[in-house]
Amino acid sequence: DRYRQIYYDYTNSKATLDQTVTSLEGLVKLASEDSVRAITYQFLGLLYLHGLKDTVKAEAAMELAIKANGSALVEISFDNKWRQMTKSRSGQYDFEDGGRGWIKIESGRLTLTDLKSQPLLNDKAPASLTGQQIKEVSKTLNSAYPLVKIITDNSKRPYLFAAGSKLQVEADLVIKLIQKHVLGKATAEIRR
What we know:
Number of strands: 11
Shape: globular
Largest sheet: 7 strands, antiparallel
Strand content: 25-35%
């Protein structure tokens, strides 16, 4: 399977970021099945966002992944108890009990997972949410980074996390994808 070979070559440093993106762009043009297009666009979205820092191409690829019955993935950092970032003794802002993982955005659902794709918990409930369970999605700023805040019907504590490399454009992208694909709002607005 060509996708697996491209993925293997990239993850084992046998292909550069640019070579991998070119190979994936070629593969997706030839793909006839949604399942191949979905996973290829998902990987392209990650590489555009986290590798090439191109949020416009990342958003387009993520949109196409979701439309092909797949999902968009964005790396996140969070506090394991869903608390705000705090200022450490060194003066840096970070999560007290920090973790890294993924937000997986699909049509009608989002899931927050650890790096091994195991769902995270909030109030002992898995962090897998439908649009109906989400009351509000917004961006909140601490003194250093924009955080995504999700308030739900079924947990006392809101979900708070930083997207990708903690840049505002990444937080905006995550909020836009959630509003459009999970909540079903055609014109996604970002609350400040």
